[in-house]
Amino acid sequence: MEEGKVLSNAAQESGAAYAVIHEKFGEAISAFDDNATMPFFEVLDTALWTDIALFMRDHPKLKFNYMACLSGVDYPEEGKLGLVANLESLGVFGHKLAVKVKCPREGGSIPSVAGVWHTANWHEREAYDMLGMLFEGHPDMRRILCPDDWEGWPLRKDYKVQESYHGIKVPY
Amino acid sequence: MQELEMAGQGSLRLSRKSDTIVVLEKDLSTEQMVLSMGPQHPSTHGVLRLECLTDGEVVTEAEPYLGYLHRCFEKHCEHVDYPAIVPYTDRMDYLAGINSEMAYCIAVEKLLDLEIPRRVEFIRVIVSELNRIASHLVAIGTYAIDLGAFTPFLFCFRDREHILNMLEWATGARMLYNYIWVGGLAYDVPAGFNERVLEFVNYFRPKALELQQLLTENEIFVKRTKGIGIMPADVAINYGWSGPMLRGSGVQWDIRRNDPYSIYPELDFAVPVPDGKLSVVGDCLSRHLVRALEIEESLKIIEQCIDKMPGTQGFDPRSAVPKRVRPKAGEVYGRAENPRGELGFYIQSDGKSTSPLRCKARSSCFVNLSAMKDLSRGQLIPDLVAIIGSLDIVLGEVDR
């Protein structure tokens, strides 16, 4: 199997999958970014993210049944927070596609897809824990890795660690 | 069957265990009790706390609490250079350090678009398969201990010691290797390494069979694991399960085969899934079986690699290692098949800095553990121990 051939096939498959989604949602999603390392599109109308996710999971030509990863990301220049979801059609078509969703940095929220993929439940909790965006409709929106009474959002670029936590000096 | 008919009339509490139905309680009024398992509980395999809501001996709900081992891996990544992240990845899944390094290096190399020397790839595969066997031996050994069998644990650790000694010889460390570098290796393997690995493979084959006979064919072990914690295939995929966990549910999916990297496409190996003869597909025993069968496949891979490996003429393990790792702006999601499932790294580069803008580790254990709440519902407390053991979690990777 030639390495280059596999890659180009994969990019083609992602493009074909994108075309199906674009046909349905049109202007609600951005143009397809077919870079070599991680082809993706962005959801422009954040409120539609759950609908798009359901469509991607259930459409007979898409079947993105597997969420490999969901990462929370900080975009300080744009004043936004966002997530990157790496989706895959496991065992059906094998195609992969990444989706980006963004929300305002202060008081922003993104619709939850924990009801679409169970695995998103903990990933979204982690994104909330680390970056502080809320996921609307999430069944259990709590911190997961940090303690419940931790202050601030550690993975934001402007994060300042708290001076003390229950009498313990934090910065070392 | 008599119990089944009585079940319709109420006032009985029943539990299904393997193929028999057990009457647990009869006309008893019980109240719910909160039972905290862990963080220092021998069966939670590290610092994990399970808050169990129990009704008598039955767990109505078990909520995992994690983060006791959180070391801010992702925050640290944003402050150190790309190659300096490799030692951190060792400390995530400390039972399979080499596999973690490999996943991370694959992601960065994909971003850099690097060509890796062929001999490097072969050495990487040999050491990562050795590490996979060592990791599975710990998984099987500690699982046996969870269920009250002590001897298999000693067998596993005796043979794991041989692997760790070999890896120590090659890399200089027993568990935290820093051996696979971005673009290459820290060192070539020592002279005579291949012979010693082959010697180990020949020694270990009968031992693996012995372990199989001691544990997998043990009636008590089968009774404790068969039909417990069943996960259907579609739910497993929806939960993002991967690796032996997903294959235990009967989905023949392995990243080494389905999204191949390194030299795996050239190698001949099977992706074992349970056939449902010995176990119920998706139960704890299936997950154990997959791990046991994978050891044999790893041995096959190692033999093939040693057979096909190019010689040392003109070989420099660091020839493709970049002086300064500064990828062009972009993002990548790179992944590899870890002993515990898919370990992925999402890396974002701004094209200017020598450290990533964002590096997220998609931990296989974290994702596998997230199904715990559903798996534990309605199980007996001793079965809960069997289920956690079959998940084979490493808390260093769950909490990162």
Automatic annotation (TrEMBL), chain A:
This is NADH-quinone oxidoreductase subunit C. It comes from Chlorobium phaeovibrioides. InterPro entries: NADH_DH_suC (IPR010218), NADH_quin_OxRdtase_su_C/D-like (IPR037232), NADH_UbQ_OxRdtase_30kDa_su (IPR001268), NADH_UbQ_OxRdtase_CS (IPR020396). Its EC number is 7.1.1.-. NDH-1 is composed of 14 different subunits. Subunits NuoB, C, D, E, F, and G constitute the peripheral sector of the complex. The keyword ATP-binding does not apply. It is a peripheral membrane protein. Keywords: Cell membrane, Membrane, NAD, Quinone, Translocase, Transport.
TrEMBL record, chain B:
GO terms for cellular component: plasma membrane. It is a peripheral membrane protein. Keywords: Cell membrane, Membrane, NAD, Oxidoreductase, Quinone, Translocase, Transport. NDH-1 is composed of 14 different subunits. Subunits NuoB, C, D, E, F, and G constitute the peripheral sector of the complex. Its main location: membrane. It is an enzyme of class 7 (translocase). It comes from Chlorobium phaeovibrioides. This is NADH-quinone oxidoreductase subunit D. Pfam families: Complex1_49kDa.
